[in-house]
Amino acid sequence: MDLVEKIQILTDAAKYDVSCSSSNSSRKNKGGLGSGHMAGICHSWSEDGRCISLLKILMTNICIYNCEYCVNRASSQNKKAIFTPEEIADLTVNFYKRNYIEGLFLSSAVIKSPDYTMELLIKVAEILRFEKNFYGYIHMKAIPGADDLLIKKLGSLIDRMSINIELPTERSLKLLAPEKSYKDIYRPMKKVDDFILENREDKKKYKSSPKFVPAGQTSQMIIGAARENDLDIMTRAQGLYDDYSLKRVYYSAFVPAVKSKLTEGIVSPPLLREHRIYQADWLLRFYGFRTEDILNETNPNLDLKIDPKASWAINNLDIFPLEINKATYDELIRVPGIGKVYANRIIQARKYANLSFDSLAQLKISTKRAKNFILVGGKYQGFNYKDPDDLRNFMANSDADNKIQLSFLGD
Ligand code: SF4
Q1: Residue in 72, 174, 185 to alter for ligand 1 test, most ligand atoms within 8 A of Cβ
Q2: What is the pLDDT of residues 375-394, one digit of tens each?
Q3: pLDDT interval class at 53 (50, 70, 90)
Q4: Cβ(273) – ligand 1 distance below 6 Å
Q5: Which of 62, 76, 110 to mutate to test ligand 1, by most ligand atoms within 8 A of the CB atom?
Q6: Is residue 323 within 8 Å of 374, Cβ to Cβ?
Protein backbone atom coordinates (compact mmCIF):
# COMPACT_ATOMS: atom_id res chain seq x y z
CA MET A 1 0.00 0.00 0.00
CA ASP A 2 1.47 3.37 -0.92
CA LEU A 3 1.83 6.31 1.45
CA VAL A 4 -0.96 8.37 -0.13
CA GLU A 5 -3.47 5.55 0.37
CA LYS A 6 -2.35 5.14 3.99
CA ILE A 7 -2.81 8.88 4.53
CA GLN A 8 -6.31 8.73 3.05
CA ILE A 9 -7.35 5.79 5.25
CA LEU A 10 -5.76 6.95 8.48
CA THR A 11 -6.75 10.62 8.34
CA ASP A 12 -10.32 9.59 7.59
CA ALA A 13 -10.28 7.07 10.45
CA ALA A 14 -9.04 9.79 12.84
CA LYS A 15 -11.94 12.16 12.21
CA TYR A 16 -14.15 10.63 14.92
CA ASP A 17 -11.66 11.51 17.65
CA VAL A 18 -12.55 14.99 18.85
CA SER A 19 -10.21 15.21 21.82
CA CYS A 20 -8.54 17.91 19.84
CA SER A 21 -10.75 20.34 17.98
CA SER A 22 -12.63 19.27 14.88
CA SER A 23 -10.98 19.05 11.52
CA ASN A 24 -13.39 19.13 8.64
CA SER A 25 -16.68 20.44 7.35
CA SER A 26 -19.08 19.60 4.53
CA ARG A 27 -17.85 22.50 2.36
CA LYS A 28 -16.59 21.10 -0.92
CA ASN A 29 -14.09 22.66 -3.29
CA LYS A 30 -15.94 23.60 -6.48
CA GLY A 31 -12.83 24.59 -8.39
CA GLY A 32 -11.34 27.23 -6.08
CA LEU A 33 -8.66 27.18 -3.42
CA GLY A 34 -8.46 24.89 -0.38
CA SER A 35 -10.72 22.21 1.03
CA GLY A 36 -12.63 22.19 4.30
CA HIS A 37 -13.95 18.75 3.43
CA MET A 38 -11.00 16.44 3.91
CA ALA A 39 -10.04 15.29 7.35
CA GLY A 40 -6.40 15.55 8.28
CA ILE A 41 -5.81 18.97 9.80
CA CYS A 42 -7.21 20.02 13.15
CA HIS A 43 -6.60 22.94 15.45
CA SER A 44 -5.51 23.27 19.01
CA TRP A 45 -4.34 26.00 21.36
CA SER A 46 -0.83 26.26 22.68
CA GLU A 47 0.11 27.20 26.24
CA ASP A 48 0.28 30.88 25.25
CA GLY A 49 -3.17 30.79 23.61
CA ARG A 50 -2.06 30.62 19.95
CA CYS A 51 -4.23 28.57 17.60
CA ILE A 52 -2.08 25.96 15.88
CA SER A 53 -2.87 23.58 13.05
CA LEU A 54 -2.00 19.93 13.55
CA LEU A 55 -1.69 16.92 11.31
CA LYS A 56 -4.44 14.69 12.71
CA ILE A 57 -3.87 11.07 11.94
CA LEU A 58 -4.06 7.54 13.31
CA MET A 59 -0.96 5.37 13.67
CA THR A 60 -3.17 2.46 12.65
CA ASN A 61 -6.83 1.52 12.44
CA ILE A 62 -6.07 -2.16 13.06
CA CYS A 63 -7.63 -2.89 16.43
CA ILE A 64 -7.84 -5.88 18.73
CA TYR A 65 -10.93 -4.46 20.45
CA ASN A 66 -14.53 -4.41 19.35
CA CYS A 67 -16.08 -1.22 20.69
CA GLU A 68 -19.65 -1.16 19.39
CA TYR A 69 -19.56 2.54 18.48
CA CYS A 70 -16.31 2.51 16.51
CA VAL A 71 -15.67 2.29 12.76
CA ASN A 72 -12.23 0.83 13.44
CA ARG A 73 -13.32 -2.10 15.59
CA ALA A 74 -11.80 -5.52 14.94
CA SER A 75 -14.89 -6.89 13.21
CA SER A 76 -15.33 -3.91 10.85
CA GLN A 77 -14.70 -4.54 7.17
CA ASN A 78 -13.16 -1.14 6.45
CA LYS A 79 -9.77 -0.95 4.80
CA LYS A 80 -6.95 -1.30 7.32
CA ALA A 81 -3.57 0.38 7.29
CA ILE A 82 -0.62 1.09 9.53
CA PHE A 83 2.17 3.64 9.37
CA THR A 84 5.69 2.99 10.51
CA PRO A 85 6.91 5.49 13.13
CA GLU A 86 9.44 6.76 10.57
CA GLU A 87 6.66 7.46 8.04
CA ILE A 88 4.68 9.55 10.54
CA ALA A 89 7.77 11.47 11.62
CA ASP A 90 8.68 12.16 7.97
CA LEU A 91 5.13 13.25 7.13
CA THR A 92 5.07 15.62 10.10
CA VAL A 93 8.38 17.23 9.23
CA ASN A 94 7.59 17.46 5.51
CA PHE A 95 4.18 19.02 6.12
CA TYR A 96 5.74 21.34 8.69
CA LYS A 97 8.38 22.49 6.20
CA ARG A 98 5.66 23.23 3.64
CA ASN A 99 3.88 25.29 6.25
CA TYR A 100 0.76 23.07 6.20
CA ILE A 101 0.92 22.32 9.91
CA GLU A 102 2.66 23.35 13.09
CA GLY A 103 2.34 20.10 14.98
CA LEU A 104 0.97 16.59 15.23
CA PHE A 105 -2.11 15.02 16.82
CA LEU A 106 -1.53 11.28 16.80
CA SER A 107 -3.98 8.70 18.00
CA SER A 108 -4.17 4.98 17.38
CA ALA A 109 -6.31 1.90 17.53
CA VAL A 110 -4.92 -0.82 19.81
CA ILE A 111 -2.67 -3.06 17.77
CA LYS A 112 -1.45 -6.30 19.43
CA SER A 113 -1.57 -4.84 22.97
CA PRO A 114 -1.75 -1.47 24.76
CA ASP A 115 2.00 -1.64 25.53
CA TYR A 116 2.95 -2.48 21.94
CA THR A 117 0.85 0.42 20.63
CA MET A 118 2.33 2.82 23.19
CA GLU A 119 5.83 1.78 22.16
CA LEU A 120 5.02 2.69 18.54
CA LEU A 121 3.71 6.09 19.64
CA ILE A 122 6.79 6.68 21.77
CA LYS A 123 8.99 5.77 18.82
CA VAL A 124 7.30 8.46 16.70
CA ALA A 125 7.87 11.06 19.43
CA GLU A 126 11.50 9.99 19.89
CA ILE A 127 12.28 10.22 16.17
CA LEU A 128 10.66 13.64 15.98
CA ARG A 129 12.34 15.04 19.07
CA PHE A 130 15.80 13.42 18.89
CA GLU A 131 16.44 12.63 15.22
CA LYS A 132 14.49 15.37 13.47
CA ASN A 133 15.03 17.99 16.20
CA PHE A 134 11.34 18.82 16.04
CA TYR A 135 10.30 21.24 18.77
CA GLY A 136 6.72 21.72 17.50
CA TYR A 137 3.53 20.84 19.33
CA ILE A 138 2.74 17.14 19.74
CA HIS A 139 -0.55 15.84 21.16
CA MET A 140 -0.91 12.08 21.48
CA LYS A 141 -3.55 9.76 22.78
CA ALA A 142 -2.31 7.37 25.45
CA ILE A 143 -3.59 3.82 25.35
CA PRO A 144 -5.53 2.73 28.46
CA GLY A 145 -4.03 -0.39 30.00
CA ALA A 146 -0.45 0.49 29.02
CA ASP A 147 2.35 0.30 31.57
CA ASP A 148 2.86 3.40 33.77
CA LEU A 149 6.47 3.71 32.69
CA LEU A 150 5.42 3.96 29.06
CA ILE A 151 2.89 6.67 29.99
CA LYS A 152 5.65 8.56 31.80
CA LYS A 153 8.06 8.20 28.90
CA LEU A 154 5.53 9.41 26.34
CA GLY A 155 4.52 12.33 28.57
CA SER A 156 8.11 13.54 28.76
CA LEU A 157 8.26 13.80 24.96
CA ILE A 158 4.96 15.42 24.05
CA ASP A 159 2.99 18.55 24.89
CA ARG A 160 -0.49 17.23 25.55
CA MET A 161 -1.83 13.78 26.27
CA SER A 162 -5.40 12.56 26.09
CA ILE A 163 -6.84 9.45 27.62
CA ASN A 164 -10.38 8.98 26.46
CA ILE A 165 -13.00 8.15 29.08
CA GLU A 166 -15.25 7.15 26.11
CA LEU A 167 -18.53 6.70 27.97
CA PRO A 168 -19.96 8.49 31.00
CA THR A 169 -20.95 5.44 33.04
CA GLU A 170 -19.25 2.16 33.81
CA ARG A 171 -22.44 0.38 32.82
CA SER A 172 -22.38 1.81 29.28
CA LEU A 173 -18.64 1.16 28.98
CA LYS A 174 -19.22 -2.51 29.88
CA LEU A 175 -22.01 -2.71 27.37
CA LEU A 176 -20.42 -0.93 24.41
CA ALA A 177 -16.69 -1.39 25.00
CA PRO A 178 -16.49 -4.60 27.05
CA GLU A 179 -12.71 -4.96 26.65
CA LYS A 180 -12.14 -1.60 28.32
CA SER A 181 -12.50 -0.77 31.99
CA TYR A 182 -12.69 2.41 34.03
CA LYS A 183 -9.78 1.10 36.08
CA ASP A 184 -7.55 1.02 32.97
CA ILE A 185 -8.67 4.51 31.96
CA TYR A 186 -8.49 6.20 35.36
CA ARG A 187 -5.15 4.71 36.40
CA PRO A 188 -3.11 6.41 33.63
CA MET A 189 -5.11 9.62 34.09
CA LYS A 190 -4.17 9.65 37.76
CA LYS A 191 -0.56 8.86 36.88
CA VAL A 192 -0.42 11.71 34.38
CA ASP A 193 -1.87 14.06 37.00
CA ASP A 194 0.70 12.85 39.57
CA PHE A 195 3.58 13.20 37.08
CA ILE A 196 2.43 16.74 36.20
CA LEU A 197 2.44 17.72 39.90
CA GLU A 198 5.80 16.02 40.43
CA ASN A 199 7.20 17.84 37.43
CA ARG A 200 5.93 21.17 38.74
CA GLU A 201 7.81 20.58 42.01
CA ASP A 202 10.97 19.48 40.15
CA LYS A 203 10.80 22.61 38.02
CA LYS A 204 10.79 24.77 41.15
CA LYS A 205 14.04 23.13 42.29
CA TYR A 206 15.76 22.54 38.96
CA LYS A 207 14.84 24.87 36.12
CA SER A 208 16.37 22.51 33.56
CA SER A 209 14.21 19.48 34.43
CA PRO A 210 12.38 18.25 31.31
CA LYS A 211 8.76 19.21 30.90
CA PHE A 212 5.97 16.67 31.33
CA VAL A 213 2.89 17.27 29.13
CA PRO A 214 3.12 21.06 29.60
CA ALA A 215 -0.22 21.58 27.84
CA GLY A 216 -1.95 19.16 30.24
CA GLN A 217 -4.25 16.22 29.68
CA THR A 218 -7.66 16.05 28.03
CA SER A 219 -10.33 13.42 27.51
CA GLN A 220 -13.28 12.65 25.27
CA MET A 221 -16.76 11.33 25.95
CA ILE A 222 -19.20 10.01 23.38
CA ILE A 223 -22.69 11.46 23.67
CA GLY A 224 -25.80 9.49 22.86
CA ALA A 225 -24.42 6.01 22.13
CA ALA A 226 -25.83 4.60 25.37
CA ARG A 227 -28.81 5.54 27.50
CA GLU A 228 -27.07 7.88 29.94
CA ASN A 229 -28.55 11.29 30.70
CA ASP A 230 -26.86 14.70 30.80
CA LEU A 231 -26.57 14.49 34.60
CA ASP A 232 -24.42 11.34 34.18
CA ILE A 233 -22.26 13.11 31.59
CA MET A 234 -21.75 16.36 33.48
CA THR A 235 -21.17 14.58 36.80
CA ARG A 236 -18.44 12.52 35.13
CA ALA A 237 -16.91 15.64 33.55
CA GLN A 238 -16.93 17.50 36.85
CA GLY A 239 -15.17 14.57 38.52
CA LEU A 240 -12.49 14.66 35.80
CA TYR A 241 -11.90 18.39 36.32
CA ASP A 242 -11.90 18.10 40.12
CA ASP A 243 -9.88 14.92 40.62
CA TYR A 244 -7.55 14.77 37.61
CA SER A 245 -7.02 18.47 36.79
CA LEU A 246 -8.05 17.88 33.19
CA LYS A 247 -7.58 20.86 30.90
CA ARG A 248 -10.62 19.96 28.94
CA VAL A 249 -13.23 17.29 28.29
CA TYR A 250 -14.35 17.03 24.67
CA TYR A 251 -17.79 15.70 23.80
CA SER A 252 -18.51 13.85 20.62
CA ALA A 253 -22.08 13.31 19.42
CA PHE A 254 -22.30 9.63 18.52
CA VAL A 255 -22.22 9.17 14.74
CA PRO A 256 -24.06 5.96 13.84
CA ALA A 257 -21.51 5.08 11.16
CA VAL A 258 -21.42 1.39 12.11
CA LYS A 259 -24.29 -1.03 12.50
CA SER A 260 -24.72 -2.46 15.97
CA LYS A 261 -27.69 -4.02 17.75
CA LEU A 262 -26.83 -1.96 20.82
CA THR A 263 -27.05 1.38 19.03
CA GLU A 264 -29.95 0.44 16.77
CA GLY A 265 -32.50 3.21 16.42
CA ILE A 266 -29.97 6.04 16.66
CA VAL A 267 -30.23 7.62 13.24
CA SER A 268 -28.30 10.87 13.52
CA PRO A 269 -25.72 12.42 15.84
CA PRO A 270 -27.35 14.44 18.68
CA LEU A 271 -25.62 17.68 17.71
CA LEU A 272 -27.83 20.13 19.59
CA ARG A 273 -27.46 18.03 22.75
CA GLU A 274 -23.69 18.03 22.27
CA HIS A 275 -23.79 21.80 21.88
CA ARG A 276 -25.79 22.28 25.11
CA ILE A 277 -23.34 20.00 26.93
CA TYR A 278 -20.42 22.13 25.70
CA GLN A 279 -22.25 25.22 27.02
CA ALA A 280 -22.77 23.53 30.41
CA ASP A 281 -19.12 22.46 30.45
CA TRP A 282 -18.10 26.08 29.81
CA LEU A 283 -20.13 27.11 32.89
CA LEU A 284 -18.26 24.53 34.98
CA ARG A 285 -14.82 25.56 33.76
CA PHE A 286 -15.12 29.33 33.68
CA TYR A 287 -18.19 30.50 35.60
CA GLY A 288 -17.95 28.66 38.89
CA PHE A 289 -21.03 26.51 38.31
CA ARG A 290 -21.29 22.97 39.63
CA THR A 291 -23.21 20.20 37.90
CA GLU A 292 -25.77 20.20 40.73
CA ASP A 293 -26.55 23.89 39.97
CA ILE A 294 -27.69 22.94 36.49
CA LEU A 295 -29.01 19.37 36.71
CA ASN A 296 -30.55 17.06 39.29
CA GLU A 297 -32.37 13.72 39.51
CA THR A 298 -35.71 15.40 38.80
CA ASN A 299 -34.35 17.30 35.79
CA PRO A 300 -31.46 15.13 34.55
CA ASN A 301 -31.28 16.56 31.02
CA LEU A 302 -30.40 20.00 29.71
CA ASP A 303 -33.17 22.03 28.13
CA LEU A 304 -32.55 21.89 24.38
CA LYS A 305 -34.59 25.04 23.75
CA ILE A 306 -32.55 27.45 25.86
CA ASP A 307 -28.94 27.56 26.97
CA PRO A 308 -28.01 26.14 30.42
CA LYS A 309 -27.24 29.53 31.97
CA ALA A 310 -30.67 30.93 31.02
CA SER A 311 -32.27 27.71 32.19
CA TRP A 312 -30.47 27.95 35.55
CA ALA A 313 -31.55 31.60 35.96
CA ILE A 314 -35.20 30.77 35.20
CA ASN A 315 -35.09 27.96 37.77
CA ASN A 316 -33.76 30.47 40.32
CA LEU A 317 -35.93 33.49 39.66
CA ASP A 318 -36.08 34.25 43.40
CA ILE A 319 -32.59 35.84 43.11
CA PHE A 320 -33.50 37.90 40.03
CA PRO A 321 -33.76 40.63 38.92
CA LEU A 322 -30.33 41.68 40.18
CA GLU A 323 -29.45 45.34 40.57
CA ILE A 324 -26.50 45.93 38.26
CA ASN A 325 -25.16 48.75 40.43
CA LYS A 326 -24.84 46.47 43.46
CA ALA A 327 -24.28 42.90 42.26
CA THR A 328 -20.91 41.29 42.91
CA TYR A 329 -18.72 40.07 40.07
CA ASP A 330 -19.68 36.45 40.81
CA GLU A 331 -23.37 37.37 40.69
CA LEU A 332 -22.97 39.36 37.48
CA ILE A 333 -21.33 36.53 35.55
CA ARG A 334 -24.30 34.31 36.37
CA VAL A 335 -26.71 36.65 34.61
CA PRO A 336 -27.69 35.29 31.16
CA GLY A 337 -26.18 37.59 28.55
CA ILE A 338 -23.41 38.88 30.86
CA GLY A 339 -20.03 37.26 30.51
CA LYS A 340 -16.70 38.02 32.11
CA VAL A 341 -15.90 40.91 29.76
CA TYR A 342 -19.23 42.69 30.42
CA ALA A 343 -18.98 42.02 34.16
CA ASN A 344 -15.52 43.61 34.33
CA ARG A 345 -16.71 46.58 32.28
CA ILE A 346 -19.67 47.09 34.63
CA ILE A 347 -17.52 46.83 37.78
CA GLN A 348 -15.02 49.36 36.42
CA ALA A 349 -17.63 51.84 35.14
CA ARG A 350 -19.76 51.90 38.30
CA LYS A 351 -16.75 53.04 40.36
CA TYR A 352 -17.34 56.48 38.85
CA ALA A 353 -21.13 56.75 38.50
CA ASN A 354 -24.36 54.86 38.95
CA LEU A 355 -25.20 53.02 35.75
CA SER A 356 -28.37 53.41 33.70
CA PHE A 357 -29.59 51.48 30.65
CA ASP A 358 -28.21 54.37 28.54
CA SER A 359 -24.80 54.15 30.16
CA LEU A 360 -24.75 50.37 29.56
CA ALA A 361 -25.42 51.08 25.87
CA GLN A 362 -22.60 53.64 25.86
CA LEU A 363 -20.33 50.98 27.36
CA LYS A 364 -21.36 48.77 24.42
CA ILE A 365 -23.02 46.27 26.75
CA SER A 366 -25.96 44.60 25.05
CA THR A 367 -28.86 43.99 27.41
CA LYS A 368 -30.94 42.05 24.87
CA ARG A 369 -30.90 38.89 26.99
CA ALA A 370 -29.77 40.27 30.33
CA LYS A 371 -32.63 42.78 30.65
CA ASN A 372 -34.97 39.94 31.69
CA PHE A 373 -32.81 39.33 34.77
CA ILE A 374 -31.53 42.77 35.83
CA LEU A 375 -32.55 46.08 37.34
CA VAL A 376 -30.52 49.13 36.33
CA GLY A 377 -30.91 52.00 38.77
CA GLY A 378 -34.08 50.26 40.00
CA LYS A 379 -35.61 50.03 36.50
CA TYR A 380 -36.71 46.81 34.80
CA GLN A 381 -36.98 46.73 31.02
CA GLY A 382 -37.40 43.00 30.49
CA PHE A 383 -40.30 40.78 29.54
CA ASN A 384 -43.24 40.88 31.94
CA TYR A 385 -43.87 37.24 32.75
CA LYS A 386 -46.46 35.60 34.97
CA ASP A 387 -44.55 32.44 35.77
CA PRO A 388 -41.18 30.85 34.95
CA ASP A 389 -42.56 28.91 31.96
CA ASP A 390 -43.73 32.16 30.45
CA LEU A 391 -40.19 33.50 30.54
CA ARG A 392 -38.74 30.17 29.37
CA ASN A 393 -40.98 30.21 26.27
CA PHE A 394 -40.22 33.85 25.63
CA MET A 395 -36.46 33.24 25.83
CA ALA A 396 -36.71 30.13 23.63
CA ASN A 397 -38.68 32.01 20.97
CA SER A 398 -36.62 35.16 20.98
CA ASP A 399 -33.23 33.51 21.27
CA ALA A 400 -31.77 34.05 17.84
CA ASP A 401 -28.68 32.32 19.18
CA ASN A 402 -30.65 29.10 19.25
CA LYS A 403 -31.37 29.28 15.54
CA ILE A 404 -27.83 30.29 14.66
CA GLN A 405 -26.39 27.41 16.63
CA LEU A 406 -28.80 24.96 15.07
CA SER A 407 -27.81 25.90 11.57
CA PHE A 408 -24.13 26.00 12.55
CA LEU A 409 -24.26 22.49 13.93
CA GLY A 410 -26.86 21.11 11.59
CA ASP A 411 -24.51 19.96 8.84
S1 SF4 B 1 -10.10 0.60 21.08
FE2 SF4 B 1 -12.27 0.69 20.58
S3 SF4 B 1 -12.57 2.88 20.11
FE4 SF4 B 1 -10.37 2.51 19.98
S5 SF4 B 1 -9.98 2.01 17.86
FE6 SF4 B 1 -10.29 0.08 18.90
S7 SF4 B 1 -12.45 -0.38 18.63
FE8 SF4 B 1 -12.15 1.77 18.16
Answers
A1: 72
A2: 999 999 999 999 999 999 99
A3: confident
A4: no
A5: 110
A6: yes
**Per-residue exposure over 194-232, b if at least 16 CB sit within 10 Å of its own CB, e if not:** ebbeebeeeeeeeeeeebbbbbbbbbbbbbbbbebbbbb
Averaged confidence pLDDT in the chain: 87
Whether the pLDDT of residue 69 is over 50: the answer is yes
CA distance 90 to 298: 54
70 CA → ligand 1 middle, Å: 6
Give me the pLDDT at residue 17, please.
65
Q: What is the predicted pLDDT for the residue at 126?
A: 97
CA distance 277 to 230: 7
- Residue 400 CB contacts under 8 Å (≥ 6 apart), including other chains: none
Query: Mutate which of 18, 60, 73 to test ligand 1's pocket (most atoms within 8 Å of Cβ)?
Result: 73
Q: Are strands 41-45 and 51-58 parallel, antiparallel or unpaired?
A: antiparallel
Is the per-residue pLDDT at 401 higher than 60? no
pLDDT at 37 over 90: no
pLDDT at 29 over 70: no
Per-residue confidence at 28, pLDDT binned at 50, 70, 90?
A: low
> What is the Å distance from ligand 1's center to 176 Cα?
11
Q: Is there an atom of ligand 1 within 6 Å of 70 CB? A: yes
Question: Given the CA of residue 73, which atom of ligand 1 is nearest to it?
Answer: 7
Asked whether the CA dihedral 8, 11, 14, 18 is positive or negative, the reply is negative
65 lines ligand 1 (CB under 6 A): yes
C-alpha 48: how far from chain center = 18
